[in-house]
Amino acid sequence: MRNVAARLRAALNRHSLTRPAGAPTWGLSAALAVAVGGALLVGARTGRADEAARVVLSMILVALPSIPEAPAAATRALLVRTSAVTASSLAVTALGGDQLAVAIAVVAAALLGFTVPSIGTTAALALLLLGLRTDMTSGSTSLPALWELTGALVVALATFATRIRRSPAAAAPAPPAGAPGPSWTARRVASVGVAVALALVSPLGIYGGHWLVTAVLLSVRPTPSATRVRLAQRLLGNTVAALLVALLMAAVPGPAAMALVAAGLVFLAFALRPLSYLWWAVTAPPVLLIAGDFPLTHDWYEGMVRVGLNVVGAVIVLIVCYAARPRPGWVRRVRPA
């Protein structure tokens, strides 16, 4: 049995899609799982499903990507992400969830996030997901940003409570050398713009097609090589996730069951995310589906629709980011006269 486990680890370590990049975060993940499951259960029992969903979405947005180990870096990351989510909530409320206005804001937030790495995709994703909640619950009396701030506070408390006894971590790694300049950033933003425009003109709209936009936002990375790896991880992981969604929806779960499933998947998603994004791509989509539409459920084939949107998103990235982009070695050699 040990030999089988050793061979499996060796196989995972060899492949770029599954090669571990860090260590699991079991303590923080357990705390977040309890918070997510508890929030959804309380929301379902008290008739505050929208508020609970907003708290959970905020927790996911603030905790993703992985929170740095060093206390100072973790504090900065939490403050920046909390500010981004809060500002997005206020913006969506001010816009009334209007699809065109939110779509323009998403593209602008993507440009800001791709230019300022500390913001990343947090603001764009927050605008999209919180806009979806606003569209679902038009006329809600929830105070803008209150529940999003609550979710961010839960993440901050869980982060520092589970790291009190941990030894000081090493400094964060420097950004990759030789990263592409403005032209690659422009392609990343353009790919998001194409996805947003395609969603708007389709029968799905920006909210029904938000998985298409999400697929592009989370696939385009700071470098072309990292983007290729991320595309492969998302396509493979999201296909498996679609099967999980199909099984979940076929069981016609109630709100309590969905809350428990979300808690279990959140535990695995955040614990395994530092190892490889592939495991996040498998476990996180069902959680986002539950939190985004809670307490509504969908037909079993909803997962297949998600896979289709992810494939379209991958095609957009390949066309916009890589088509007509000169490859290394294609420069014609000129002989001296």
Give structural attributes:
mainly alpha, disordered C terminus, 14 helices, 337 residues
Structure description:
The protein has one domain (21-163, 182-322). Helices cover 70% and strands 0% of the residues. It contains 14 helices and no strands. The longest helix is centred in the last third of the chain and has 27 residues, at 224-250. Residues 167-178 and 329-337 have low confidence and may be disordered.
Helices and strands, with pairings:
Elements (H helix, E strand, L loop, with lengths): L1 H13 L11 H21 L2 H15 L7 H25 L3 H17 L6 H15 L9 H16 L20 H20 L3 H4 L1 H8 L6 H27 L4 H18 L4 H17 L8 H21 L15
Which radius of gyration do the C-alpha atoms yield?
20 Å
Let me know the average pLDDT: 86
Estimated structural class: mainly alpha
What is the percent of helical residues?
A: over 70%
Number of helices: 14
Uncertain runs: 167-178, 329-337
Shape: globular
How many beta-strand runs? 0
The structural domain count equals 1
Largest sheet features: none
The separation of the N and C termini measures 67 Å
* Percent strand: under 5%
Order of helices and strands: HHHHHHHHHHHHHH
How do you describe this structure in short?
By secondary structure, the chain is mostly helical.
